[in-house]
Every structure is written in C-alpha cells, then in structure tokens.
Amino acid sequence: MEKGYSQEKIIILHLKDNVGIIKKDVNKGEKIVIEEEKFKNTIEVREKIPYRFKIALKDIHVGDEIIKSGELIGRAKEEIKKGEMVHVHNIEGLRGRGDLKGKE
C-alpha cells in the first residue's frame, strides 16, 4: 500500500495519507471498509460526499497537516472527524502559495 490502494468507493494514493478520494458519490451512514494488508480501516461516512472529493481517514485536529499522495497539501482550519469531507471549507491550502515560500 505504500503507493496506494483502490476499491469500489475510495482511492488512497499513499500509505502516509490521512485523506482518501471518493470514487463515486457516498451518502451519510454508508460504510467504507478497507482491508489492505498494511492498512485496515472502517470509515462511516458522516455526510454526503460527491465523487472526487476527499474524505478523512481518521480524526484530524486544528493545525494538523493534510496529506494526499504522500505530500502535504494543507492544514486543518477546524476539527475534521473521520468520515467527513475534507475540502476548502475546513482546510487551508498550502500548495502553490507564494506567500509561504520556504515555510511549508
């Protein structure tokens, strides 16, 4: 799984990731079960999440790094519970920002 994991509902691009990418719309209450050799997890979806959006694989606290593809993409602006959507409303993006050169 170091390079990734994929199943019907989710793609996890790297073992370090704390977010996955939804492969088809999921609804509140659905369960996503991951049974990879190095990564086992059951995620109960906490809200409707559309195709191609990110979902938290674990609880993420204010200030925690958001990791996708094994790379830092942002920081949490608020508490994000496992199973919630991770998007611009709850993270501060850090990629491509000239004001953060050398700080990220």
Summarize the structure.
The chain contains no helices and ten strands. With 104 residues, the protein is an all-beta fold. It is globular.
Account of the protein in words:
With 104 residues, this protein is mostly beta strands. The protein has a five-stranded antiparallel sheet, with no helix packed on it. It has a three-stranded antiparallel sheet with strand order 7-8-10, with no helix packed on it. It has a two-stranded antiparallel ribbon with strand order 4-5. The protein has strands spanning 5-6, 10-12, 19-22, 31-36, 39-44, 54-56, 65-68, 71-76, 85-86, 91-93. The protein has a single domain, classed as Roll (Archaeosine Trna-guanine Transglycosylase, Chain: A, domain 4). Helix content is 0%, strand content 38%.
Task: Give a quick set of tags describing it.
104 residues; Archaeosine Trna-guanine Transglycosylase, Chain: A, domain 4; 5-stranded antiparallel beta sheet; 38% strand
Topology diagram in text:
Elements: E1 5-6, E2 10-12, E3 19-22, E4 31-36, E5 39-44, E6 54-56, E7 65-68, E8 71-76, E9 85-86, E10 91-93
Antiparallel strand pairs: 1-2, 2-3, 3-6, 4-5, 6-9, 7-8, 8-10
